[in-house]
Design a protein that fits this description.
The chain is of the alpha/beta class and about 400 residues long. It has twelve helices and eleven strands. Bound molecules: guanosine-5'-triphosphate and magnesium ion (MG). Guanosine-5'-triphosphate binds near residues 284, 365 and 367.
Length: about 400
């Protein structure tokens, strides 16, 4: 399958281009009007953009990343369109029902947040004094987003591990901090499929954190780069309208895609793909404060019995909220995936998250590009995210 976008002055002209390049067998995936050129909205011309695909049996591999990205974008556009339609419909019909419940959810959140804040304040009272040359490093760490409590404990342990004569040496202090952070981040573990048995991996988490995008990256990476046999099952029944696009994306990366509506059909779908080395399950985003949604998810997981359940969290979410999410998902989660590292400048609080959850970190994602923007988590990479790349100015 080859996917390509064509732009022309009108539909006939664009279809002509498609026929010339992809032949008459080409399938139209999407048609839309776009505006080109112009300055401050003047002199723009309206063009037609058509995304078309053609099955190229012999030329299935190698697939280039552009094709994968385009197919994934076509899927995303459809998904966004559908989500908008759905939210318009919901706000027209359910506005009275949803408001009071989200207010009580907010109240509940505030109470829990207050409790957590109180806990941290109580803990930081009466802390042992830090000698002057080391005290400034606490500021550096808290500016990176690491909690005061964690920063103080790092510097405290430095105080005992470093010779007093080295406290003024910024390079020595920095490399000691790095070592400490790496030790705190040693718990990392990526997905390791086996040839002999299929490994079922589910991604769960709150809405919009990047579950589907990350599955796209992982499925493409394992299928194309590692040449593994992969299947993708989506239990996100809210996005049925986008499934055709997801299937096209699957065809391009050589991965069958199935949609399941019930926990029982998830179990059956997994059985159908026992010949695969890896089966990914995408789930609908769940608000941790919505009990019904959480129990729906739990019902899917009870039937699907994934070997690994990876809790996806965005580093753009503040630590207190991340911890609330974790509390709600902890029973079902075996690993963490941290997303949107590219969107945050001070990602130090991920150290607090990692230490508090004690879950192994599997992957880090740093952009919207499928399949490129993903890295296996390692202590070095995590320490780099926590401390930043630049030499600190202390
Ligand atoms: N900057 C950035 N954006 C990302 C990353 N991962 C995903 N996104 C974007 O985040 C948005 C939501 O991504 P999805 O993959 O749909 O998130 P999801 O968790 O599946 O969302 P739901 O299914 O609605 O719960 C999209 O616009 C993605 O392109 C990342 O690592 N960095
Ligand atoms: Mg999704």
């Amino acid at each position: 399958m080859r996917v390509k976008r064509f732009i022309g002055g009108n539909v006939t002209e664009t279809m002509g281009k498609i026929k010339k390049e992809l032949g008459s067998e080409a399938v139209i995936l999407q048609t839309r009007q776009i505006k080109e050129g112009g300055f401050l909205g003047f002199f723009t011309t309206t063009k037609v953009e058509i995304t078309a695909a053609v099955d190229e049996k012999e030329a299935n591999y190698p697939v280039n990343n552009d094709d994968i990205q385009k197919a994934y974008e076509a899927y995303r556009e459809k998904e966004i369109e559908f989500a908008k339609e759905k939210s318009d419909k919901e706000s027209a019909t359910h506005s009275e029902e949803t408001l009071p419940s989200s207010n009580s959810e907010l109240q509940e959140m505030h109470i829990i947040l207050k409790e957590i804040k109180g806990h941290i304040t109580r803990k930081s009272e009466g802390k042992p004094s830090i000698p002057e040359p080391l005290a400034k490093w606490i500021k550096f760490l808290t500016q990176r987003g690491i909690s005061e409590e964690m920063s103080t404990s790092i510097i405290n342990s430095l105080k005992s591990s470093l010779a007093e004569g080295d406290w003024q040496d910024e390079d020595i202090v920095m490399s000691s901090i790095k070592k400490q952070v790496m030790i705190a981040c040693t718990n990392t573990e990526i997905i390791r499929p086996k040839k002999t048995k299929s490994l079922v991996v589910a991604l769960v988490g709150p809405t919009g954190v990047g579950k589907t995008t990350t599955i796209g990256k992982l499925a493409a990476g394992f299928s194309i780069i590692e040449r593994r046999k992969v299947a993708l099952i989506t239990a996100d029944t809210y996005r049925v309208a986008a499934v055709e696009q997801l299937k096209t994306f699957g065809e391009i990366i050589g991965v069958p895609v199935e949609v399941v509506m019930t926990p029982d059909s998830l179990e059956e779908a997994i059985e159908r793909h026992r010949d695969k080395e890896l089966v990914f399950i995408d789930t609908a985003g769940r608000s941790p404060f919505h009990d019904l949604h959480m129990s729906e998810l739990e019902a899917f997981l009870q039937k699907g019995k994934p070997d690994l359940t990876m809790l996806v969290m965005s580093v753009t979410t503040n630590l207190a909220d991340q911890l609330l999410v974790f509390e709600r998902f902890r029973e079902i989660s075996t690993h963490l995936i941290l997303t949107k590292l590219d969107e945050s400048f001070s990602t130090g609080s991920l150290l607090d998250l990692i230490v508090k959850t004690s879950l192994p970190v599997a992957y880090l994602t740093n952009g919207q590009n499928v399949p490129d923007d993903i890295d296996a988590a390692t202590p070095e990479k995590l320490a780099q995210c926590v401390l930043g790349e630049e030499k600190p100015n202390v």
